[in-house]
Design a protein that fits this description.
6-stranded antiparallel sheet; 3-stranded antiparallel sheet; alpha+beta
Length: 181
């Protein structure tokens, strides 16, 4: 298995166990799903438990899917799996400032580590195009970051596919380093 870590902070962001779709050679889109926050969750999937005469009345609604109990708290699977933290709300201007600083930090890192000039050109060209797209959708997204408290670290955006149901993460491919486990 390969775990991909934030190149600048070392925070774990994603792994190769997820289906990764590459966009413009610089962005990875990764479908995720909502999962219960509580691993101890006991969900009764018995057949029509709401008709069970021995079941207390307050539990009959839950057993039949009719509500009546506590709501289950959920999180996105990759957020939970990699312990990503809420980066707080970002408006377009705030995200634009962050993105500019982040791209500059990556560029500086590539130059300092004498990365391939073609890799740098590919990243900068794709980043310009994808930055425009992301600035157009950031208001609809939730933003997350790794556990390191570094304001210029990668922000993982979570948006929804065209179906309005499927959440997916948006991750900067060049901002990751591989770690084989």
């Amino acid at each position: 298995m390969i775990i991909y870590k934030d190149l600048l902070t070392g925070d774990e962001i994603i792994s190769d166990t997820y289906k990764i779709k590459e966009v413009d050679e610089v962005i990875w889109e990764v479908d995720t799903k909502s999962v219960p926050l509580n691993d101890d969750l006991d969900i009764n999937i018995g057949a029509n438990a709401s008709e069970d005469p021995n079941l207390p009345e307050e539990e009959k609604g839950l057993a039949s899917g009719g509500g009546g109990g506590e709501q289950i708290e959920t999180a996105y699977e990759i957020v939970k799996a990699f312990q990503l933290e809420d980066a707080g709300p970002y408006d377009k201007a705030m995200y634009k400032k962050h993105l500019k600083e982040y791209i500059e930090r990556l560029k500086k890192h590539f130059i300092e580590h004498e990365d391939d000039k073609e890799k740098i050109r590919t990243f900068l060209a794709g980043a310009a195009k994808q930055s425009k797209r992301l600035l157009g959708i950031v208001g609809n997204c939730e933003l997350f970051k790794g556990q390191t408290d570094d304001e210029s670290s990668m922000r993982v955006l979570i948006d929804f596919r065209e179906d309005g149901v499927t959440p997916y993460a948006i991750i900067w491919k060049h901002g990751l380093q591989e770690m084989k486990v």
